[in-house]
Amino acid sequence: MALELSKSSWKLAFLSGAGKPRIRTIAGGAIEQLETEIGKAKRRLKLPEDAPVKSCYEAGRDGFWVHRMLEQLQVSNVVVDPASIEVERRKRKRKTDRLDATKLVIRLVRYHEGEPKVWSVARVPSPEQEDARRLHRERERLLKERKAHQARIRALMATMGMDAPRVLSLKMVDWAGEPLPPDLHAELEREQARYRLACEQLRTVEKERDRRVKELDTPQIEQVTTLTTLRGIGTTSAWMLVMEVFGWRPYMNRRKAGSLIGLTGTPFDSGGTNREQGISKAGSPRIRSLLVELSWLWLRYQPQSKLSQWFQKRWSTSGRSRRIGIVAVARRLFIDLWQFAEFGVVPPGAELKKTAG
């Protein structure tokens, strides 16, 4: 069974071996209807009532609750990365929910018949692991909101010939010292209130994060504390790395760890053509950007490390080459930080923070 999900309706495609898929439509999120259609499909396909059901759907706005619901219904489900599904290369192609569901169920059969690379399967976190990612993601949104409100206040003041200070303690007068027009004055007050609310909520989120680091005793918090013992790694960076990646994704080897964040190369080697297309940019953009920032900090605070020495020796010739080289540093640093958080292996040449006393 393949599910093509939308807000108002779900398309279900049923298939048993070869043949034409059976397509049904139910209301979005209608669990009882889903159970009924599964039973009807078994009878239509002449299968016993206890026949195992395997299903799939594409990862999207619905998240993972559908996966957990299917597991409760004794359905073996996989969540598919939409970007990994092969598509036709014609200039114009047909696309409907019915066609998408049909293609999904056919690929599901191929997947269970021994073609694991027909697509990429997303790893589903537990409800606790998924909830642990809320705090730092909310902090990211609040930072963007605060910056947006600040920019809006500056723009409004600029129309009156005034420059708002960074602290935004505004004097409601124009360039000539005259009071601002009443509607502009009211808009600025409302914008200031939203700015102060974003600042207050940001402080609340950061205090909660710091409290958990100090008081909780969990494997994830232990990893956060371990990472912060390295010079150049703070609580914000360590928290995001652990909650997004290290705390719930077991790895098999260094290659998988490096390719997860999309910092691996994508060569194009066909016939007489051989060129590098750049990094793949797969995985989480927030972790990728964080690692680039951490790489610059690593070069500053860990200059004697093997990784920093390698960068200075190979990539310190010009500004452009440094920007290219920092990507390679980010990939290697991610692997080093994973080994340090998971196994306690200190990166070669790295220094730990000095503890008081």
Would you mind describing this structure in some detail?
The chain is an alpha/beta fold and 357 residues long. It starts with a strand and ends in a 14-residue tail after the last helix. The protein is 51% helix and 11% strand. It is globular. The chain has a five-stranded mixed sheet with strand order 3-2-1-4-5, sandwiched between helices. It has three domains: 2-124, Nucleotidyltransferase, domain 5 (2-Layer Sandwich), CATH 3.30.420; 130-215; 226-343, no CATH class.
CATH architecture heading of the largest domain: 2-Layer Sandwich
**CATH class designation of the largest domain:** Alpha Beta
CATH fold name of the largest domain:
Nucleotidyltransferase, domain 5
Tally of discrete structural domains: 3
Mean pLDDT over the residues: 88
Quaternary assembly: single chain
Distance between the termini: 62 Å
Stretches where pLDDT is under 50 for at least 5 consecutive residues are: none
Order of helices and strands: EEEHEHEHHHHHHHEEHHH
Main sheet record = 5 strands, mixed
The largest sheet has its strands arranged as: 3-2-1-4-5
Name the structural class.
Answer: alpha/beta
Radius of gyration: 26 Å
Judging from the principal axes of the Cα atoms, what is the shape? globular
How many H/I helices?
12
Tally of strands: 7
Strand % is: 5-15%
